[in-house]
Design goal:
disordered N terminus; single chain; 80 residues; two-stranded antiparallel sheet; two-stranded antiparallel ribbon; mainly beta
Length: 80
């Protein structure tokens, strides 16, 4: 029996949150991918964080390596 190809696909969107940060007077940037089930939701996630501060971790020896964890953010989430 052959499965319906249309039902076997899950369409997901990625909202890319880009951030900048300063360590010892030097500027760095990073990205965080937020999964969404629709384009509209992906847009909402990014819009909810535009212009806001986030909590992130960066490497003490390689400052250009950083990560933003959901659990560190206000309300335990990234986006709105």
């Amino acid at each position: 029996m052959r499965a319906n190809a249309r039902s076997s696909y899950i369409y997901t969107w990625l909202a890319i949150l880009t951030y900048t940060y300063v360590v010892d007077g030097e500027y760095y940037s990073g990205t965080c991918e937020l999964k969404a089930r629709s384009e509209r939701r992906a847009d909402e996630l990014v819009e909810g964080w535009k212009g806001r501060m986030i909590v992130l971790h960066y490497s003490p020896t390689k400052h250009d390596i950083s990560v933003a964890l959901k659990s560190d953010q206000p309300g335990g989430q990234l986006g709105n």
